[in-house]
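Pipeline run #58 for the internal structure catalog. This entry was flagged by the ingest filter as a single-chain record with no existing model, so it goes straight to prediction. Upstream metadata was stripped on purpose; only the residue string is passed forward. Reviewer on rotation: M.T. Logging verbosity set to normal.
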Amino acid sequence: MKQFKIKIKAIVTSNDRFLVVKRWYDDRIVKPYQWEFLDGDMNFEESPIDAAERIVREQTQLEVADGSLLYTWSYVVGDTCYVGICYGFECLNREVFLSEDLIEYYWAEKSELNDSGHPMNERVLLDFLNSGKK
């Protein structure tokens, strides 16, 4: 049976810095503990922008404003088509309280998103370039 799943990504900025996080991973992940942007799944009957705001709030307890659609993407795995929607937000407060599935956060400067000294998830740079926040 073919199906769709909607993934939501949130790029949160504050004072020209980008919020990146590290997630808990298990041993099956090839490159664990890399920095990445916030993301999650959209719930049934939830709008994409509401999902993005909820994901930011649940994962960091940050309040955000000025949500804008940055880009979309899609990919297929088996019989499931994943559709992704990325929103950009300016955060209203910088006091971060991480959810249990996150282990660390960092306010990265633009230049650090492609810095070889930081183990960034390869998708982060692509996400950043697609975000229009260059």
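catalog note: The chain has a mean pLDDT of 86.
catalog note: Strands lie at 3-14, 17-23, 38-41, 64-77, 80-91, 102-109.
status: ready for reviewer M.T.
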